[in-house]
Amino acid sequence: MHNVELKAELRDIELARTICSVVGATHAETLDQTDTYYKVPSGRLKRRECTGHDTEYIYYDRADRAEPRLSHYVIYSENAARERFGAERLPVVAIVKKKREVYLVGPVRIHLDVVDHLGTFLEFEAVVSRAHNVRKCHELVAALREHFASVMGEPISAGYADLIQTEANLNAQDADPIEDPSGSSDP
User: Fold this and answer.
1) What is the DSSP string of 170-186?
2) Which residues of 38-76 are buried (b: 16+ CB within 10 A; e: fewer)?
3) Burial of 20 (0-12, 13-18, 19+ CB in 10 A)
4) CB 86 within 8 A of CB 135
5) Which tens digits make up the pLDDT trace of 36-52?
């Protein structure tokens, strides 16, 4: 499956909810999601856990660009993911926890995300289908981008897992060195 997606910082979630209503989007659900990202040879693989929903594995591949981009994705059940990626435990890259408000307008999912340790984000995902080809999906995302311009911050090129890793690396660099409790300076 494919979608055209765009992610950006969200400056005002209340106003974004109002804009959702103005553009005719309906609130579908609010979810508490935990995504565990795994190291795979190419693309990205995450295990999504969400109360009230089956656990699913989502493999996707897309460019890291701060503009609308095409994403190819496949959703696997737990068993299908084991068959596809192996029974051995994969190395964990990052864990992302978020509260996601999902709004729907036509073939577009609008996500208002509050991500632990990162902040608030807006995401558009236009699902590519026979009725809505890639070009049409780009047009739909561009139109929504105009409607939401007043609440959008900087477009985001990376995924949440990448942002979490970057944040962790910055925090580690800023940390004071830990002294050896034995008082030894030998490595």
Assistant:
1) HHHHHSPPPPPTT----
2) bebeeebbbbbeeeeeeebbebbebeeeeebbbbebeeb
3) buried
4) no
5) 999 999 999 999 999 89
Q: What is the predicted pLDDT for the residue at 86?
A: 85
DSSP state of 109: E
16 vs 71, 82, 99, 148, CA distance in Å? 24, 39, 15, 7
Contact 35, 169 (CB under 8 A): no
What's residue 70's pLDDT? Answer: 96
Look at strands 26-38 and 44-50 and give their pairing. Answer: antiparallel
Say if pTM beats, i.e. exceeds, 0.70: yes
Q: Tell me which residue has tokens 């929504």.
A: 144
Query: What pLDDT, on the 0 to 100 scale, is given for residue 181?
Result: 46
pLDDT digits (tens, 9 = 90+) for 71-122: 999 999 999 999 999 878 899 999 999 999 999 999 999 999 999 999 999 9
Tokens of 86: 């192996």
Structural domains of the chain in order of their starting residue, each with its CATH number: 2-168 (2.40.320.10)
Question: Please, what is the Cα angle at 126 between 139 and 21, to 5 degrees?
Answer: 85
Q: Looking up tokens 């964990």, which residue turns up?
A: 92
Residue 59 pLDDT level (bands cut at 50, 70, 90): very high
Amino acid at 87: A
